[in-house]
Amino acid sequence: MAQLIQQKLDIDTLSILYPQLDTIEVKVTVFPNSTMKFEPQFPKDSVAYDTIKIDSILHARLVDFPKINPALKRGLPVKTQFILPVILKAKD
Predict the structure, then answer these.
(1) Of 15, 45, 60, 91, which is most buried with the most CB atoms under 10 A?
(2) Do 12 and 57 form a contact (C-beta atoms < 8 A)?
(3) Residue 92 falls within a domain, yes or no?
(4) Greatest Cα-to-Cα distance within the chain, rounded to the nearest angstrom
(5) Which residues pair with 86 in a beta bridge?
(6) Which residue segment(s) compose the domain that 64 sits in?
């Protein structure tokens, strides 16, 4: 999943707009109905970044994912959340 997110973000200008930003942590939530939600987690010094712009770029790019099966607990689908570090690569 981390590779897929990195591929989707490689085609964008995040690394050009924010060269000092090398990694973004994304909170991924997989719901019992197999839908997904992505929430970028910004560092404490996020005042230096335009968090609204970064958030909108991430939401625009992180669409059309393949179907993800939810976690199972006692045979029933449950909501799962985890933090995924995504490394932004600058294109030279």
Answers:
(1) 15
(2) yes
(3) no
(4) 49
(5) 24
(6) 2-87
φ/ψ (deg, to 5) at 14: -60, -45
Predicted TM-score (pTM) above 0.85: no
Q: HSE (CB half, 13 Å, CA atoms) of 34?
A: 6
pLDDT of residue 2: 72
Q: Which residue has the tokens 């970064």?
A: 54
Instruction: Provide the residue type at 76 as one letter.
Output: L
Q: What is the DSSP letter of 90?
A: -
Collapsing DSSP to helix, strand or coil, 43 comes out as coil
Q: How many domains does the chain have?
A: 1
Q: What is the pLDDT along the chain (92 residues), one digit of tens a residue?
A: 777 777 676 655 565 666 666 777 889 899 999 988 888 887 666 555 667 777 777 777 777 777 888 999 999 999 999 998 877 665 54
Cβ distance 40 to 53 under 8 Å? no
Spatial separation of the C-alpha atoms in residues 86 and 12, rounded to whole Å: 14
**Assigned token pair, 2:** 């981390």
